[in-house]
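lol so apparently i was supposed to do this last week
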Amino acid sequence: MKIKMTINDQSHTLDVHPMMRLLDILRENLTGSKEGCGEGECGACSVFMNGALVNSCLIPVLQCDEAEIFTIEGIKDTAAGKLIAGAFAEAHSAQCGFCTPGMVMAAVNLLRQNPNPSEAEIREGLSGNICRCTGYDMIVDGIQLAARRAKEEAVPW
Ligand code: FES
Ligand code: FES
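anyway here it is w/ FE2/S2 (inorganic) cluster bound
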């Protein structure tokens, strides 16, 4: 099946099996999105699809025709991506780093909808993402720091 989609603002036409997972298509060239569970539970494979945060391990590519996909590679060089990477580094929000791309995508998704989240709202925003290392507190700290900086520096999410 021929699928046309945009990945990080670049147009692609792919000739693929319709049931291939979006995650596998992406990881042929872009390895930022990770596979943890492969079952929609851990959020490591999170990407934006037409502006909505999705688990790419659950998306058959047939659903992606004419879709606009943004991965962590598309986010990391934006002003918001750089700000959140700096805040995560400062707050020690990453340990092994396996969950971090998904955490960053979840954080951007949350901060786009709610630029001043409470701690409870941040924890709720991360509820689809599993981290095996940090105990979550340092990730919450990183997101709070990113939210503060974005406000001070007028960086849009
Ligand atoms: S790998 Fe997709 S949610 Fe875990
Ligand atoms: S930092 Fe290791 S899984 Fe989150």
